[in-house]
Structure formats: C-alpha cells, structure tokens
C-alpha cells in the first residue's frame, strides 16, 4: 500500500480536527486485534502498513489466508494510546471487509474442491477504489483474482458481439493484442464456443449456461478436438447453493462476482489493555 | 464527486492500455441501465458524474431513495460505444454497491417504523475510500448517516472509559469540544448512562445491552428526570431479526454497522442497443 | 500534518532547483527558533512535522498556546546546514502566521474574560488551503474553532432566510440533519430568535445587532422560557475596541472572523550557530 | 488556477456532506459580489476559476489592480442557488485576503512614488500554500513579487555569510548559477556591499540599515564606480510609517515582508437576489 | 490522458508566474503544427488532450502511425495567442519524443518485414512517468508494447533463475499466476528453453544468444515437439544493424529496449500566423 | 525527489499485483549496479531516493558528473531480494536515461572547451514529467540547465516578435518583469540584436544564424559598445559535428535542445549475488 493511499484513507476517517482520539492521555498501551468469529483472514499486510504509518509496534500472529477461530489473536500491538485509537477503525474496516471476502471465497473453493479441480475466480465487480485489496482477499481465500483491469487481458463480451459480431471481434482482438496478453471470449452458445476456440482465443467463457448446457458444450469442444486448446470458464448465476453442480461439469474456471459483492464482513475487534505512563 | 476521485476510479478499472473497449467501432449507441431485482436505488448522482466525465448523455428515470422493480430502467443513455463500455462497470459497481446498502437500510427502517419512530443510523464501519458515498446510500435508504469522521462530533467509547474513566473523559470532552459539536458517550450500564446524562452529554449510547436492559435504563433515566435531556442510542448485536425488539424499547436511535457491512449488492445491468454509424 | 501536504508546501518554497541552500558546505549546525516579540505561540506541531521531514533534531521549548517574550527560544535545532536552510522559511511562515492568530485571539479572550464567561469563536473566513491550521491557532489562543466546514453542523444564514424563509429553513434542516449534528440559525430580530429557539435549533446567532439589541433579545428569550434551551451567539461588527460591550450582554459565544483576517504575523526568526564539519 | 487546486480548496470548505447549501430549493438566482470598503481589488481571476468550477455565469466589473469604493460591484453572478452558496465563502476568502494585500501594497507604492521611483517588493514571507496568489496580489497593488521560490534566483543571506563567508558564497553562487539567473547578496555593511558589487552580483540588498547608513553606502558605491552596475535593494524594519525616509535614499528596491504578513483582509460580500424557479 | 496528468505536465512547464506567454496581446490566432523531417507521427491524442485543456480548436490532419514528410501539417489550430504559446512546448515535446520512438520502431518493423513475420516489441526500459505514452508510440510504429508493468504477465528473469532455479521458478509462477496471465521464461541455453517449454510456459525468451544459437535452439524445440506450444522471443544486443539476421532465425518476437532508449526526437514545430483582435 | 513522485513512478512499473518479484524467496542479497559502457554518471541521488524507499542499503561509489568505465561499479547494494527486484528497473531507467544525457553533454562541453570558454546549455525541450531530473543530468555533464520553466526568466521568441514586434515585446517585458529576473530576446538579425541590447535586455539569443553571421553580429555589437552589456547566446541547428565552429565565434552560451532529445541511454545493469536466508 502506498503512503499516499494510506493518507487518503486516514484523512477520510479522521477529518480535520479529531478530538475523540486526542483527548486521552497519551500513555503507552498494549492491544490485540482478535477475531470474534471463525474466518479466513485477509488484509494483514494492509493493516501492517497502517500500523507502520502510526508507529505502532506489531506482532503478526496470522498470515493472509489462514483460518482463525473465534477469539484468536491476529495482531499484538504496542503503541501510544492516541495512535492506537486512530489506527483502530481503519485497520479493522480493512480486516473485516477483506476477511469477509476471503472467508466466502474459501467456502466456495472448498465446495468446488470436493468434486473438481476447477478454479474459483473473481470478476471486475469490485468496490471502487480498493479493487487491488479485494483481489488480494480473493487470493487469500484460495481463489483466482481474474484480470485486475481492462488492460490486463482482452475480453470480448456480449456488447462486443452485439456491436461487431463475434468473429470480427476476435479478429480485431488478435490484431490489437500484445503477444503477452491472453484473449478471452464470452459466448452464449456451443456454436460460438467452437468458433472462438477454433479462432485461437485462449479462454472461452460460457455465459449464463445451465450445467447441462455446459456439459454439452464441453463435449462438442472435445469432439472438435478443441478441448485442450482453450481454457473453459463459466460465469453467471452461480452461487454457493448451485456451485457444486457447475463444478462437476468439467470446466476449468468458475468466475463469481458474488465472491466480493455478496461477501459480508468478518467480525474483528481491537481491545486495549495495560496502560503505562509515558 | 470530485473529478480527481473519478479519475482515480477510472484509472483503477481501465489500467494503462485498454484494448477491450477501444477495439469496437466507435459508433453512437443507446443504452439503458436497469434493475434486475427489486431494490432501493442509490448512487444516481455518482453515476451521473461518471457519465459526465465520459460525455455520455443521460436521462435519469429514478432518484436516490426511490424503489424500483425488476426490469425498471434507471438511466437512458446515449453516447459513443467506447465511452459506454468504459463507463459501464464503474457506474454499475457504484450503483450495485450503494443500492444494496440503501435497500438493506430501507428494510430496517420499515421494520422499525412499524413499531417506533426511532432512527436507524450507520456507523464508521464503512469501506475505506468511499465512506461519503456509503453514507449517502444510508440516507437514500431512509437512515441517518451518523458522524462522517472522528472530527464531526466527539464520541467517548469503551477504550476512553478504560483509559481515563467515564467522568474524566466527559470532563475532557466538554473542555475540548467546540460549542458547535455534540458529545456522545457510549456506556454499558444504567449507572453510567445516568452519570453521562447528568454531566450534560448530548447523546448516550447504550452498548450491547439486551432490550430489557435498555428498557430498564430508559426508565431510570426518566426517573432521574434526564430522559428528555439526552438522545438515547443503542448499538451492538442488532440485526434484521431482532431489530423490532430494540425498536420497541423507546430509544431514539438504533445504530447498526451492518447497514453497510452486511449489505449485498443490488443487481443492476447496462444493455446497449441501437448502433448508428458516426 | 500529512506528508503529502508538507511536500506541497516544500515544493512551493523550493522550486525545481534550489541552489541557494545547496551551495553551502553541508556541515552539522545548531540553530534556534526564537521570538522577536511577545506573543502566544501556535504551530509548534506543524513546525515539528516540517523538521521531521528534513531529519532535523529538535527540542521544543514551548507548547502551542504558551506566551513567550521577546528573545525567548521556541525550538533548539541540530541538523545539516542545507536542511536547516530549507526548513527555515516554511517553518517560520507557519509559526509567524499562526502565532499571530493565537496572539490576537488571546487578546480577545482576555478582554472578554474580564467581564464575562463568553466564548470567543472563529468563523469560516480563513485563508484557503490552511484552515485546519488556522483553527488550531485559534484554539491555541483560547478560542473556539467553530465549525471546520459546511458539513460539520448546519447553519441557516441570511441567504437561506431570503430564499426559503426562516421557518421552512429550520424545518428542512431538522429533516435533513443527522442526530449527531447541531443546527444553528442566524437571525436579525428578536422575533426570529424566539421562533428559532422555539423550533428547537441548538444555536441562535444574532447577526449584526448592537449590544442593546442583543440584551433586549436575550431578555425576550428568557421571558419565553427559551434562554436555557439554546446557545446564543453574536457576530458582526465586533472588534477589539467594542468587544467588552458585547461580552457584557450575557451571550455565550462571540464569533469574530477578524481573529484570523485581521491578525498580523508574530515575528519569529531562526538563527544558526556553531558549524561542525560532517 | 489548476482544477486540482480548486478541488482541494472546495473540499476544505464543503467537507463530506454539506447539508447547509443543499437544503435550499435549487432555483436560479442573481447575486452580486461587492465591496464593503474602499480597496484595491485582487483575486478576480481566482474567483472566476471558482465560478467556472460551479458553472456560475459572471460578469466581471473590475480587474485586478483597480480601486473600488464602498458598495462598488465587483461581479454580477447568475446561477443555481446551491452553486452560489457553495462558491460564496471560498471566492470571498480569496478576494478578501488578496485585495487586502493589494490595498496595503498600493498604499506603500503611492507613499514611495511621492518621493522616489523605487520599487516596492514582497519577500518569501507568504502564507504556505497560496504564495502564487499572494504574489499576484502584490503585483495587482503595483509592487514587485520578488522571487517566487528558492530556485528563481540565488540569494546569499546572513546564514550563508556566517557559514562560508561572503566572498566564498559569491564565488560558489557564480559557479553554480545558470546564466539565466541573477545573484543577489544580502549585506550589512558598506564594505560588504562594495565587495559584492565588485564581484559582479546583480543585486545588493542592504539589510537592516538606517536610512543614513543606506545613503552613505550608496555614496560609497558611487565613489567606487559601482553604483550603476548593481541594483540596490533595502529591507528590514521598513513599515508604512518610515517608508518615505527609505524611499528618499536613492535605492531602487524596497522589499517588505509586511506587504503580506501585516495585510488585513478587505471586506467584500456576496448578496443574492431574485430567485426564479428552475 | 487524465486531466490530473495534464495539469502536472503544465505546471512543470509554466511554473508559478509565466510572464513570457501572458505579455502578448491575447488576440485570436491561427497556427499549424508541422513536421520538419520525414517521420512516423505518434502522440496525436496526447496533443489533443493538451489542446482541449487550453480550449484550442484543432483539426487533426494525421493519425498516430501515419508517415509524414518534411513540411507536412499535423494539426491546424485556432485559439487565443496566450493559449497557443502555453500549449506549444508541451505538445511539441510529446509529439517530438513519441514520433521519434514511432519512427525508429517503424524502421525496425520494416527491416524485419522484409525477411520475416516476426513481431518487434518494446521492453520495460522506458522513461519514468510516461511509459504508457511511449508504449503507444511503439504501437503507432507498428510494434508490440510488451507488458506495461510487472503485474501484466509473469516473467522469470536471470535473477529469478539465480535465486531459485528455473524449474522452481516456473513451478512457483504457475502456482501463483492467474489463469488470465501468460508466463514467460527468459533462458540462456537450449536446455533451459526445452525445460521451460515442456513445463508449459507460454513464452520462452532467448536472452543474448547469437543468431546461430537461436536457430539451433529453435530446431531443438521442434525436435522435441515443442515448437508450436510456445512463443519464442529473442532479446539482447539487437540493433538496427543486426536486426535482419535475428529476424531470419524463425522466431516470433524480437524485443528491443532500444526502440525507446535509442530513439531520437522527431523534429516538429508550431508556427503562428494570422492574428485577429479579440 | 519527493516521496509522492517516487510512488507514482513505482506504481507505473509495478502495477496492481506484481507476482514477478513477489514469487522469489525473500532472502537477503547483495547486488551491484555497474556500467556496461564508458559514460558520465547522472541520477545517483534519484537512485538513492528509490533505494531509500525500498529500504535498500547502498554504498555510492560514484557521484553525479564522474566518468566511469565499462564494468565500474556505481552502487553496492544489500537488501531483501524482493526489494532489489522491485527497485531494479526504475533505478536503472533513471540512471540510464540521465547518464546518457550527462555523457552527451560532457562530450559537447569538452568539444567546446578546446576552443572557447562558452557555456553549453539545455533548453525546454525535455521529456514531460522529468524535466528537473534531465536538467540535473545536464549540470552533471558540465552544462547549464537554462531556465527550468516559463516563469524562471522572460524570453521573447519568434512568436512574440510576430505578434507584437520586438520593440514592443521588450518594453512589455521590462514593464512586467520582476527586478530579480533576466530578460532574454531571441533575434534573427544583427539589427535586432543591437536593438535588443540597446534596450537593455540581459541576454540576446541569435537564432539559427551561421557561424559567420554570428561573428558579424558580435562585431556589430562591439562596434556599438554593447558587447559587454549583454550575454550573447546562439541556438538552432547546432550539433556535435558543427559545435566547434560555433564555439569559436566568441559567443558566451551555446544552447542545444539535442543535449536531451538526441541523447541515448547509457547502459547500466544490476547484478545480484550472494543470497542469505533471512
């Protein structure tokens, strides 16, 4: 996390004249950040950057991606009381939000792993301003971040097909893409999936298909000898309930915006204890 | 929304070289933003700022705080296809995230309204970087934003009590506060609630009390003639299930971090149609 | 002070290629910042942030709000000569400007204290870009900062009355305000003062009234039983000469833009001494 | 003024959720900015940049540097009421602060002009963050801005002399300076003035000399044939009272930090009138 | 180009008080930007963003990637003289620098095209702060931008091999990579090229090999049946003289840092003509 | 270099999720930055700021402006491998680019020194965003940076002459200039040179004259007794081949945009060695 980002986040939470924190006697205190529920932790490095900013000494007890249980300590802290009060909400807001994403991702990954080796991936449906952190939370949960932004790889979506047709879109993408980039085509039919695969896209994304449509499409790709030449991804309407059904279809990637937009914060808290006069 | 903010959000989503949007023929197109579920809309002005940035003509069909139903149109748009593709995800991410918060807030407000005139309020548990927008979503949902940052009003919390004692904390707050600011004290017992009210704080927040403890505390305040001298707020452990119970306790404000951290995005989408060569 | 702010201020004073400071041999030197007149010091923490940026060791001899006399030392410094030369003007500009405000504020506060317990407060008439520092200087002088910005509390001013009428404005403000915010109404007559107080605003500001009009208005508020339900503030045309007259009217707050916009800088200087080869 | 600067100033004055301005019905209104005292106006272009930002139509009645009298109109405005309320304080803060500097500068310039052709110049004693605007106000008042920052020209000051001696400092400055830059040496004695002029500095600044010492030093420079080879500047302890005495000494530049740090704001105000429903 | 970027570039060129441009009578003028040498133009959109910022009307005569000859007009402009003077150097600095890169790239691409279908690609050796524009210049010249930053695709370089061994590095990269990313391994021997290709990297980069070593390595890859499973890139020591030799080796990508770091600016100029009083 | 600048440069090179550097085991390593060709080094302080940012210990073996030979070490480094990989490209991009400019400048300075004491100077033809660093590279090479931006000194160029005439332009410049600024006039004829010198400009720049025209103009200035009253600069069409001819004309300054826009990067590299487990 860049210092400029931290300062923007701090300014948002502190405002211009924070009496609330300033009014306490500035003694040295110890504190712990701990979980108030079972969860997969994410955001540990973000929290450390915040602690560093406020000159808070910390011992990290858990790394991103580790499971903790209710009452487990995530950080032991030591610093002036004013610094601790100022770092408290911002660090917890990150830890809570990101651990919530990591926890939901882990649930999905584990559900998939029971029946498949498919990868669970995020999308660009992320909270504006903190995408990089939410993607890291998905990784902490065992998921794949998918592309970070529109420039990372080229994706042909429904609007591209509507405007210029799938074939033209793929031709144009291949013409414009760097050799370092993958090209992905979102399709809604087996015919288009075969067309895209045959034209050499790296990833075919089956959009809003039912599990049986997916199975049928994968079979057709196999029949055409294209199954191993392309990564097959599915997306659309997949949730924790029906995830297993999709996982069993033999595809390689399941992308779910809900990893982020349906995640609820994990509950973490900071508790101060032991005050020493400076 | 400041232009500098918009540019940061856009940079996050576009990256350094966005072929995905650029590759389409840049014709003029019409599009609609519409709801794919019933929800309370929020973020309309944020979306407009994004559309303005991309020189997209828009007609707003719905204002912040209005309920829409599945398939209702929120915006009618007209612009170049490249601009539409670039504005799509960012505007939807805001609309989806903020409408989710507004929808959950409205649910809570309506539940409370059935049995009370209490206000439903947010907290500082917000996603870093976009607090101002999330607070506006709470307002759109009918809730109270509570303070925007630590400088807005002075709040004495558990850590203050632990460090310096409630009485000292209130004295210090009154000494340091501007006459334009309210002082709020979070307490965990009726005794402390009475002490705080007697010392003249503007708001007493009963933290983590059960409904019956709250009722008892309110009665004690009344008995001491302090009931009308202080705003009584409750917080802690309140969710959509038990909300009504709290609403019936006669308090004035129910603050719930969950308005934001348990909200799930509303589902909105953009559909392009009608392409005209430039 | 955020590092980003410091860097902007430094860039302003140094430009792109500062030979003036660079050309001296970079030995270690000692220096003092001292007062060249009696004054109340403000800006000490701002200066420290600047010294920290330039890796200057400092001993603070005086805290914000303390009175110093001509020749009193405010800081003892030790650092490389180049750093001292670079920090000199910026730190003195802050100390001089802010101590000037603190000194004028203290004069006003002491004048008021001789005949009243009224609070002396600033306004939003501040130098663009450094309001937070000027408000802190008012606090150092013993004054009240009043609201830091338009979002801090709601103030109904003459233009609001003109556009929508006082009563409508108060109704609207009460509808829109968070329970954490105070509402202030600026009025020009006793009738309006009574109306505002009766409608429950927290602060009534009597604008541009003479002392005798103020006394009369306060009496009418008492007569209506509203005197203790509202904070009475006066503003407009108050200066160091007539301040005492206003202080004696029994109001609670006297706000004066002139604390900032009529303040003249206090005279402080930096003197280097004792150079040691590195 | 850059848009990024404007947005920072606006953010400072508006905060995160400005109900005060938002609560009025957003009709179209006319307004005037007018003077409440005689003064020299400065900051007109800054105000225009702010009006542009808020889409306010304006007619400028006065240019920077023009004298206005009490009640003279500086701007006629037309815009939505919300925009006018939001632009009001920020534009007035600039106009008041800068016109105050221009007015004091003009007073000094006129006092000097009665007995001399000397130039009145500012220094680097400026309010952090807005130096460029304060320098423009000095220009509007008829003064010379002097260097904008440490990189503009090279100035050898007392600390340079103390550290490395005047002769060495001049040698070093001449070695390091670009041919596009002037070199200025601050001296405290006629001997040093002659040394500096002989070594070829462009400007000699006589620091803290009495008028008679200045006259004597200028004569010595003439005697050495150096009078026309160097610009003679005086500074230190010059104020509106003794300015004429210094002006008569035959020097070319009188620099006064007090143009800025002793200036008091001019009184300007905005008045709205005529509301039309949108 | 984001407005914030433009403002930073403008601030760099204008400084705090630009008399040079301001001093001309601000009449409306026409101007042309024209080439003073044959070159491939790049930076046209960057220039347009600058013209837009200064409210300059422009007609673009040439698009990025087109060849122009000495005296060809690139832009016809119409605006106030002050705006034209302010936009002149910044727009020309971009056009000159970027067209220089495009021209050198085009030379290399044409040299390669005479004997091969290989792609000419840039590297991360770019001027800090303007990589995105330099990469676009490479594209304008007909080259491939290669990855824009370290996050775009994963590249295993000599230091990775030294630290963890090629095999471990590839295993780690495959474990950490998103399915949307390509993995590239830089190798110095045919053995390593075969290892990397067999392990499934997408791109093998043969570093600092002679043309005959490259030919031999490609043959060995073919012999192992790996030739079509991997993109073969060469880099290191390739310049305009020996480029053809490399192009004939049958590889697919030739990457050359020199496209950017050996490019010299193309010579473009702005000429004003026809002044009309405003 | 300001921290904000460093962070912008780092963000450009790292992107949002840099696996490439992160994937190595983070042991402590030693490394050297060394030259792969003879060159004059520049950018050492920039590199140090980058190393500081990444907590890399460094020993500087060479200062800006020193000549190094192929294989000479510029920095010895010690740090974690991840930090070294992240700092590598950015520091080398600066060192390579700036050392290239310093090397070309030194070549020109040495060529001039063989026949003249003339100064070699840069222009405003610099790469947008890093002018301050490129100017420092010119200084490291022994050249003069000329003005850093339009505000540094006033320069009357061809477009000024065309718009308002040379005489008017000089009058206007003298009216508007601060006494701390020099005025430079670019002319194309001896007549104009004499006019400008007689009117008191500080620098006359002979634009695009042949060596013999320059000699003739200098003689005419001497004949008019103006030769010692003005700095004579030449510019336009001067390159490494014809530089000596210009140097012999007796002028004082030769300014060449090509110092920067024709410079090619010097070749420097970083080599890691010696890994120690943390």
Q: What do you see in this structure?
A:
- The structure is a homohexamer of 278-residue chains.
- Chain A is α/β, with parallel strands linked by helices and 278 residues long.
- The first copy, chain A, has 11 helices and 12 strands.
- Chain A has helices at 3-14, 19-22, 44-53, 81-113, 131-140, 158-164, 166-176, 190-198, 211-223, 243-247, 258-261; strands spanning 28-35, 39-40, 57-60, 67-68, 73-80, 119-121, 154-156, 183-187, 203-207, 231-235, 253-255, 268-276.
- Chain A has a 6-stranded parallel sheet with strand order 6-11-10-9-8-7. In chain A, strands 3-5-1-12 form a 4-stranded antiparallel sheet, with helices on one face. In chain A, strands 2-4 form a two-stranded antiparallel ribbon.
- In chain A, helix 4 (81-113) packs across helix 5 (131-140).
- The first copy, chain A, is elongated.
- In chain A, 56% of the residues are buried.
- The model of chain A has no long low-confidence stretch (mean pLDDT 95).
- Chains in contact: A-B, A-C, A-E, A-F, B-C, B-D, B-E, C-D, C-F, D-E, D-F, E-F.
What's the gist of this structure?
Six copies of one chain form a homohexamer. With 278 residues, chain A is α/β, with parallel strands linked by helices.
